[in-house]
Structure to design on (203 residues):
């Protein structure tokens, strides 16, 4: 992977973390759980390209890694995962999924949040960031729990949307190798590790 691509991946996680801030700090605590073996719930978000995206159908057909962040400080954890993906000689899609839950109506600050992320990410990679708000983000928090919110939620989905690997205890090089081994066993797609352009699923 080129240095430019690694820098872009870093830019995505930094920009995403910077705008999530304390938006989820007032959410109800949900005990952490390991959702491995479950099907990823159907949620709709919006890519930074402004397109409606439905997960997991938008990444169906081949394995994909979803990096979910709930809090600003999650960026530190996701930065390390991102660097690991960038250095790995594997082929799999990586999608950033900020899940924003707050006390305000979900539409109130969407424009500001998304504009802030766009400012720090090259336009060619806007399709790789899908932000969830309101009930959709709540479904993901219910899936994984939100305790220790500074840790990213790293999920490996197979081509049918089943969660085949999960980790929420902070970056670990050992766990990265484990994730990549599982991903290879699922026949990862034939494109280099990079942010994935997500198709528009709007009606």
């Amino acid at each position: 992977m080129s240095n430019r691509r690694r820098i872009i991946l870093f830019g995505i996680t930094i920009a995403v973390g910077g705008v999530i801030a304390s938006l989820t700090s007032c959410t109800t605590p949900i005990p952490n759980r390991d959702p491995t073996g479950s099907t990823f719930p159907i949620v709709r978000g919006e890519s930074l390209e402004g397109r409606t995206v439905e997960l997991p159908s938008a990444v169906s057909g081949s394995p994909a890694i979803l990096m979910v962040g709930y809090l600003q400080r999650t960026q530190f954890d996701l930065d390390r995962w991102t660097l690991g993906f960038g250095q790995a000689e594997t082929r799999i899609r990586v999608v950033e999924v900020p899940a924003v839950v707050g006390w305000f109506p979900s539409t109130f600050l969407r424009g500001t949040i998304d504009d802030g992320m766009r400012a720090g990410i090259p336009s060619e990679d806007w399709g790789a960031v899908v932000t969830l708000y309101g009930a959709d983000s709540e479904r993901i928090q219910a899936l994984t729990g939100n305790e220790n919110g500074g840790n990213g939620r790293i999920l490996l989905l197979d081509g049918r949307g089943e969660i085949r690997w999960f980790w929420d205890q902070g970056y670990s090089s050992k766990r990265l190798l484990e994730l990549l081994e599982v991903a290879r066993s699922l026949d990862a797609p034939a494109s280099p590790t990079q942010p994935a352009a997500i198709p528009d699923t709007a009606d």
Notes: The radius of gyration is 15 Å.
